[in-house]
Structures are given as C-alpha cells and as structure tokens.
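User: Here's a chain of 379 residues. Predict its fold as tokens.
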Amino acid sequence: MQIEGSSASGYLTDSFEGIDRVFTDVQIVSTSATNIVAKAKRYGRWWMLKALQPEVREQSAFQLRLRKEMEILIQLQHPNIVTAVEMEQVDGLGECLVMEYVDGDTLANWLRGNISRSERRRIAEELTDAVGYIHSKGIVHRDLKPENILITHNGNYVKLIDFGLADTDCHAVLKQPAGTLQYMSPEQAVVAEADVRNDIYSLGVIFGQMDLGGAYQTVISRCMAPADRRFSQVAELKHAMKKTRWRGAVIGLSILVCFVFLMLGVLGWQAWQTHHKGLTRQQVSETIERGHVYIDEAVDKLGINQHLDTLSSLMYLWSDFGTKCASINTIVDSFMESCAEEFTEAELAEIQTEVATYGFSYLEQWNKHIEEMRKKEGI
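Assistant: Prediction complete.
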C-alpha cells in the first residue's frame, strides 16, 4: 500500500540527500526596465531564471511576452541555443522562465581577448548555423547583438540567448517594431512584421565587429544591403561564407606555389654558380626524365585530376584539397632522396629545379581549373 504524500520512487520530495528541490542561492545577474535575470541552484546545479520587474509583473502584456518566450524556446533543441525547461513560480521573483545556466562570457567581452582570426570565423559560422536553425522553425530573433551571444568558457562554443523580442507568425504578442537600434535593419525600425532578413542584417553588423578579414567584406556588405538585395535566407549566407573560405584557401595555395618557385630558383641558381662538374649531361637528363615519370605516377595516385574533371561546383571541393596539392613538395623531396648520393650539389640543384618545375606545372593546371570554375560560379 502506498502511503499518502509519498511516491513510488521516493524521489518526488522537496529534498533528498541534502539537495534542495526548491531554488536556493538566488543571485541577480542583470536587470532591465521590464525583466530580472537571476541565477539560482537546484539539485546541486545552477539554473538561469528570467522574471518580470515588480512594476510590470501583473500586467498581462508582459506576462504573455514572457510566456511567448517560453513557448518559442521550449521547441528549440540546438547545441548553440540556450535550452528552456519550464515556467515556475519562484519566491521573491514570481513566475519565472527556467533555463539552463551558461557558464560563459558575452561575445562583446570575448572579442576583447587575443582571439585568432580562424577562431573568430568559427564562432561566426556557429552563430550563423544557430540563426539558420531558428529560421527553419519559423522564428525570427529580432534582437541579435553581441550581448545576446554567449561564448562558453568550456570549449568556446556559441550560445544564443534572450528570445524576449523573438516572434513567429503564430504569436500575436508584441506585433510592433522592436530591437536594438545599432543592430536592427532600417525596415525593422518601422515595420512590425518579422522577417528573417532582419536577423541577417544584424549578423552583418556583428560580423563587421568581429574582424573576420577583408575577404568577408563582400559577405558583410550583402548582409547589410537594402532588403531587396540582401541574402533572402541564411542558407545563401552560409554558402557565401563557405565560398569565401575556399577562395582564401586557393589564394593561399597560389602564394605558396609562387614562394616555392622563387626559393627553388634562388637555390638552384646559387648551387649552379658554385659547382660545375659531375656526371655527364646524358645521365643528368635521364635522371630528370625519371623524375618526371615519378611525379606522374604519384599525381595519378592522388586522384586530383580525376576529381577536378568531375567536379560540378567548388562547394564540393575536397576539404583536404589544399593538403593534397601541397604534397607535391613531399613527392619531389622523396624523389630527390633516391638520388642524393649520386650527384654533386650543382647537379642535384639542377635536377631538383627541373623536377620541381615539372611537379608544380600540375599545380598551375589545378589553379587554372579552380580559377575557371570560380569565374563560372561568380565567386
């Protein structure tokens, strides 16, 4: 027989093993004209509580807005978006939206640190992915800004927070212009209807503050263009960011090739000027020809020619394309090791220059192919 007031599991009580079910250690984190944000402990872990200021706590419009935020957040399950749990009455705060506690710092504060450009770009991509996800759910955030983007201390991951001004077609609450002036699009300031392009404009402003590099300026400008010329959805923005990243990789590879050519030319010339004797011209020529065959066989194993011949778009380019191309250096070095003891330094310099030039002719072909596709795709 079950005793009244108990539970089958024995755990549905106000406390067990010294761990409270009620919220304790309540600490105010921030306040605004209408909201209070606090953190509190329950079951031994921290939670975030969002409540209304006492002056507006009994006003239905603000109550509905807080519940709307709960209805929006509860349907979102994404690693880069804060998780909501429930609405609950908390002593001293009234009805609260209970959310996971994020141990992190705002994007604004995080950017003040010595952060590499590659890390900034990773954060920009995570943020874009999170915004694309909420748009797929028919939700527009409407208040994207560095203060509403947290970067976790553990792992430096994005957590998008504060959906108080977020809106969907199915909600009738707060159908009016809203947002933070510095980050809101011009049309958002005067039009009540939520539009995903409002968030895309805000992303452009944020990206401009993140110092992603000159290559991303075109993407940022498109984000902040008039609504009819802006990216119409986040998928287009993500594709543009991906193309920008690949463009940077191709440019970097081209610079590397030019540098290697220059260094090989300088070293080869110096070695040739210093040494003048060695094997016969026929032996040197035969070795160079053997190096060409060696390069051809190695390149065939890489499969780059076949990949480029069947490539329909740069977005499908191998993720390790640059690494495979750079292996030409390793191939040349491997061949030179096989004949290092047979020649003088001057002859080795001549052979290396000729074999490397032949190897890098493949790089020129690949770069030309990539450039042609880039022009074709308008990158």
